[in-house]
């Protein structure tokens, strides 16, 4: 009768190789989850910036006199504010809008986020009267809005900030 050796230890090696393959797969899956979470955060910030920009454009559209006077022009966040619970003039409403939008920028975007708005009258050298503004179109110029915010990256820690630029007519 021929001698057949007993395969002792082969099963242990197979189990160890299987555990190695399984652990490499888990490490890869965890890396994918980290990248997905970071991408999700970046998309969330871009969505917030879009909503904030639209919010300010609508505030400006509701106050054409403040836009004509150039009161919305400037950098944000801005600390000055105005309480408009009892009503406001157009200039006071601009202060209220600037303060509210600045507060929203600080709340919904990471620290270091900045914004600026610049409106031009489109070649008109005068600010129209209230009656003229109430006629269409409410504003003959255009406005530029820039919002920048820091975004963490996986590889480059000193990555340049993300910038949202928008040209619109309130």
UniProtKB/TrEMBL annotation:
<protein>
    <submittedName>
        <fullName>Type IV pilus modification protein PilV</fullName>
    </submittedName>
</protein>
<keyword id="KW-1133">Transmembrane helix</keyword>
<dbReference type="InterPro" id="IPR012902">
    <property type="entry name" value="N_methyl_site"/>
</dbReference>
<feature type="transmembrane region" description="Helical">
    <location>
        <begin position="12"/>
        <end position="36"/>
    </location>
</feature>
<keyword id="KW-0472">Membrane</keyword>
<dbReference type="Pfam" id="PF07963">
    <property type="entry name" value="N_methyl"/>
</dbReference>
<keyword id="KW-0812">Transmembrane</keyword>
<dbReference type="InterPro" id="IPR013362">
    <property type="entry name" value="Pilus_4_PilV"/>
</dbReference>
């Amino acid at each position: 009768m021929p001698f057949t050796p007993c395969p002792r230890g082969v099963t242990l090696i197979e189990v160890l190789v299987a555990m190695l393959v399984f652990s490499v797969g888990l490490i890869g899956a965890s890396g994918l989850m980290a990248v997905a979470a970071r991408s999700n955060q970046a998309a969330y910030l871009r969505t917030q910036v879009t909503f904030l920009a639209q919010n300010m454009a609508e505030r400006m559209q509701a106050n054409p006199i403040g836009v004509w006077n150039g009161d919305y022009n400037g950098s944000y966040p801005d600390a000055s504010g105005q309480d408009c619970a009892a009503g406001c003039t157009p200039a006071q409403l601009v202060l209220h809008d600037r303060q509210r939008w600045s507060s929203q920028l600080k709340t919904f975007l990471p620290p270091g986020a900045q914004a600026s708005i610049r409106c031009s009258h489109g070649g008109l050298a005068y600010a129209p009267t209230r009656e003229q503004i109430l006629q269409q179109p409410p504003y003959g110029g255009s406005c530029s809005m820039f919002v920048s915010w820091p975004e963490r990256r996986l590889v480059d820690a000193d990555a340049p900030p993300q910038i949202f630029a928008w040209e619109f007519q309130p």
